[in-house]
Specification:
single chain; 333 residues; alpha/beta; UDP-N-acetylmuramoyl-L-alanine:D-glutamate ligase; 10 helices; 35% helix; globular
Amino acid sequence: MRAEPDFLELIGRFAGKRMLVVGDLMLDEFIWGRVSRISPEAPVPVVNVTGESYYPGGAANVARNLREFASQTSVMGMVGPDAPGRTLVTLLRDAGIGTDGILQDTGSATTVKTRVIARNQQVVRVDRERKTLLQKDQLAEASAYLDRTISQMDGVVVADYGKGFLTQPLADEICRLARRHAKILAVDPHPHTSLIWRGATAIKPNRIEAFSAAGLPPAEPVEPVCRDQALLEAAQRLKRLWETESLLLTLGEHGMLLFAGDAEPLHLPARAQEVFDVSGAGDTAIAVFTLGLVAGADPAAAAELANRASGIVVGKIGTATVSAAELRAAFAA
């Protein structure tokens, strides 16, 4: 019988870990306001702006989540030579996140996601982006940075948002170096890039990503989750394709489903008390799940840590993070 893990002890181990995040960097902009009337020009609300705020987004938000627990966190990705890129790098540095791995691409623009929030609800989201694939010289620069730094890291998290930084040659290099240096490698994949992450320690797709990567048509959820045959088939295909030790499916209000080694699938029901905003919940999940593995937790305990953290973060508005104190309190309660 499996012994109950000491979650508080595991969380305490996070602080000394050295983590690297690789992926698509973005800037999240929030415009806060009040709605008092409907526009006479169209049936849409008129938002009177009361404030604006900026946060690291995409892979940079994964780094921000890690930084809440791990004092040594770095990020590798690409920004454009523009004001949003400069703002993003400044935010990361102010948060104590290493930025030496950030490349600047003169031919691209930094991705910006602007969300308009009124009455604690998202009114609209506006995306500004220009996708550009990683070029040969940029691949060489990124590979050289990884080769210099990965030996100093305890774990690597890849966050693929499909913006072009992550290509198959870079994915192959990340997997090769992680295996060579025996590092924990966890991947949050994207449904439209179809990258192969063969040999990664853990991969965390959501439901849509799982069906897409497995080459299967999406299917409606079935309860209980462990009897969702379409989902189970997609997961088994992905385990064979990616040859990963652990596959963690995040299922929104249906919680998480873990496939680890030869063990039976483990369903973890959703922990959220109230859901205000799901943006960034996946970033929190992959960050805490990876930290759990790096700290020595088995996949089931790491998944429970991630599940609790996700349940906390969806109760916040905006691209939020979970603190070590909040996660401790969740388990202490």
